[in-house]
Amino acid sequence: xxxxxxxxxxxxxxxxxxxxxxxxxxxxxxxxxxxxxxxxxxxxxxxxxxxxxxxxxxxxxxxxxxxxxxxxxxxxxxxxxxxxxxxxxxxxxxxxxxxxxxxxxxxxxxxxxxxxxxxxxxxxxxxxxxxxxxxxxxxxxxxxxxxxxxxxxxxxxxxxxxxxxxxxxxxxxxxxxxxxxxxxxxxxxxxxxxxxxxxxxxxxxxxxxxxxxxxxxxxxxxxxxxxxxxxxxxxxxxxxxxxxxxxxxxxxxxxxxxxxxxxxxxxxxxxxxxxxxxxxxxxxxxxxxxxxxxxxxxxxxxxxxxxxxxxxxxxxxxxxxxxxxxxxxxxxxxxxxxxxxxxxxxxxxxxxxxxxxxxxxxxxxxxxxxxxxxxxxxxxxxxxxxxxxxxxxxxxxxxxxxxxxxxxxxxxxxxxxxxxxxxxxxxxxxxxxxxxxxxxxxxxxxxxxx
Length: 450
What we know:
Elements: H1 11-26, H2 28-46, H3 51-58, E1 61-66, E2 69-74, H4 75-101, H5 107-131, H6 149-157, H7 165-189, H8 196-214, H9 220-237, H10 243-251, H11 260-280, H12 288-303, H13 307-331, H14 341-346, H15 348-374, H16 386-395, H17 400-410, H18 415-441
Antiparallel strand pairs: 1-2
């Protein structure tokens, strides 16, 4: 036994089991794998004898509230409206971090992934619109604009050291800008008739959250309570309620209470005091002074981290391993007519999604990147070639989560068209993932001219 360390009888054995499990849970690839498994399970359920029960469960209404203030939504809608607001909050926190201190904080660094993301949104939307220029089918133009961060990063992470590390950074920055574009599209173009009274409450509650930030409130509870009210007001307003997640994320402070130098000084001071305290009374159970100093150290550890940083860390696992898989279970269940599957894919809606995600995404991302570099506005990150950018462009065609989400909004009143869109999304996402990995694994990683 190491000096000063107490091990209970089963502790070491339990740690040997738990440590690999924790490492597995925290891997990026695990989230993508879990998402894929849930999507497959949903497909199996939707094409099995339990399909009717699965459908009834998803549409079972659940009411929450009291008196006249009651929200009654189906399980499917609770998942898409409430749980996905947490997903959007994580996107907002990641975007805020990147804008202030990350890859998007420097205009020169940010320009290349921003241009790539713009190309990856505009060209796919045009590709879909060319095949569906009019009628309600045109409502799906936003479907191929989105990239599924979890799937795309998971696919890239599977290749490990066979691709440059800078490629992962480029993909993350691109995907975050892409998500911001998707959020803007949902807010501006996939919104029902507006309730201006509810919108007034949205504005008031947003002002309250901003005042919390400016007033230096760092505890999570006030933001959570007002955030729930904001979500409810957003749901009643006609704007998609998940946008509340973005507003909450941007209101949470990103500056810590203590800067690192001050924290280190406090740790040194507390360490000296703890040493004196434990020398005076080595019985830590009855040494109130030592316990008080340890609590002060814990408070310092808490305050040296920004509230936004803590929130992103705290919600990452629940969102990655609960919210997104549950979303896949609720939304990827597509009954497939295998006798006419080719006919489904040949329909203009499915074909538009396929063209947008498989052709528009890589063409837009690689094309806009190439033009930006050729014009001298930015340079490719060290170690990257245009082959890497084309591969990432294909991975950007994995639209799964956000694409299905937008499809649900665009074709809410057209179940057959929604089925066609989801069929195109799943087929395109699978092909894009395989194609992107194949391109990135081709040849060596030696840099070439653009």
